[in-house]
Amino acid sequence: MVDGPVNDAPYRLIEEVTFGENVVVFSFTNLYGCEIGDNTRIGPFVEIQRGARIGANCKIQSHAFICSGVEIEDEVFVGHGVVFVNDKYPRVDGDWEQLPIAVERGASLGSGAVILGGVRIGPRALVGAGAVVVRDVGSGETVVGNPARPLEG
Amino acid sequence: MVDGPVNDAPYRLIEEVTFGENVVVFSFTNLYGCEIGDNTRIGPFVEIQRGARIGANCKIQSHAFICSGVEIEDEVFVGHGVVFVNDKYPRVDGDWEQLPIAVERGASLGSGAVILGGVRIGPRALVGAGAVVVRDVGSGETVVGNPARPLEG
Amino acid sequence: MVDGPVNDAPYRLIEEVTFGENVVVFSFTNLYGCEIGDNTRIGPFVEIQRGARIGANCKIQSHAFICSGVEIEDEVFVGHGVVFVNDKYPRVDGDWEQLPIAVERGASLGSGAVILGGVRIGPRALVGAGAVVVRDVGSGETVVGNPARPLEG
């Protein structure tokens, strides 16, 4: 564990983040209370919330939002504007249950994808750009669409 | 009405905004000419345009974009990356008509949803994550998909 | 060619950008190595990557992401949160081929649209809000949905 990202960049907010070695964090980022593994790169306009864990050698692209409850293993690609959801019935009032999300080793989440709470995305799975993932994705499987379904053919 | 948000945060732009009491506004926000009600929270990377009105006790999550013509009542949840649209045929040239959007009390808009101009979202309605809302949503109704349709079952 | 945008704004990063005359660039932007034509307006929370080319009289709305390989002609509207993709199989490891994207004169891309690599969007075409464009769009054609299909009727 090291004290911070390996690069310097203006306009970024980093609070109580546990960094691996050689992490690069771009400008306009809001990271707090999360863990980020070795050699991972975090693009601009990204928020990563408290309790999220990101493995080594990942790419988290611009405009992604990674919430509490998300665990991302090593070598995962999170495309631009990918959004994770951790509540099934979001309401401003009352209680809610935080749903976990797991993204396993080597998976890739295409840009603009939305990943709902409670799902597991298997190793080397591929989520198509703009897909809305509402159930588990198997190892090496490719899913596309809204709701996301296995690619035919 | 008070002079500004109750919290302090770096990197935010606030111009000609009418604030209720106890509003919290996070960093990396661009708010101008809008109204924000009591106890509402505005996340990072949010833009709210001139003329938009947001009620009390709302949560506006990160990366949301709320345009002119949007009226949001009290206790509404606007998820991460939700985008409102106020023009039917966007073009760089020529005239366009601004279409109003109403989001009624207690509604929740899931993360990544897109809300088209001219629609009304009824009280306590639930818009699923990633849904593209092209017509009105009734009171307490749940809609999902692209285009958004009532949830079966 | 001129030295920079015609306006001033806090919190923006501009590096090695070729500007036409009278370009307006808002706050919270990250622009590098790209070309931007006369009178074009770039909204907040926008990233435009190295090698992207944007014509004259365009509007690039907030939260848009424009990647390397994208060529946008004159008078194009790029809605809020539009994301371009330039790799077919994104992975953190190994090689990848950059796919070009062309958006021709006068086209409009609705907010929240996702545009996949390798497609051409014809002149004055209209991409609906939230559409996921996976193949070419003809001149003047309107497409909607995920995947985007020509609008019936």
What does this protein structure show overall?
Three copies of one chain form a homotrimer. With 153 residues, the first copy, chain A, is an all-beta fold. Chain A has one domain: 3 Solenoid (UDP N-Acetylglucosamine Acyltransferase, domain 1), CATH 2.160.10. Chain A is globular. In chain A, a hairpin with a 4-residue loop joins strand 20 and strand 21. The termini of chain A are far apart. The mean pLDDT of chain A is 95. The first copy, chain A, has no helices and 21 strands. In chain A, the strands form four sheets. The first copy, chain A, has an eight-stranded mixed β-sheet with strand order 3-6-9-12-15-18-20-21, with no helix packed on it.
Tags for this entry?
eight-stranded mixed sheet, UDP N-Acetylglucosamine Acyltransferase, domain 1, six-stranded parallel sheet, homotrimer, 153 residues, 32% strand, mainly beta, 21 strands
Oligomer: homotrimer
H and E string of chain A:
EEEEEEEEEEEEEEEEEEEEE
Work out the helix count of chain A.
Answer: 0
The main sheet of chain A orders its strands as 3-6-9-12-15-18-20-21
Major beta sheet summary of chain A: 8 strands, mixed
Mean pLDDT across residues of chain A:
95
Number of domains of chain A: 1
User: Radius of gyration of chain A from the CA trace?
Assistant: 15 Å
Derived from helix and strand composition plus strand pairing, the structural class of chain A reads: mainly beta
The CATH homologous superfamily of chain A: Hexapeptide repeat proteins
N-end to C-end Cα span of chain A = 45 Å
Write down the overall geometry of chain A. Answer: globular
CATH architecture of chain A: 3 Solenoid
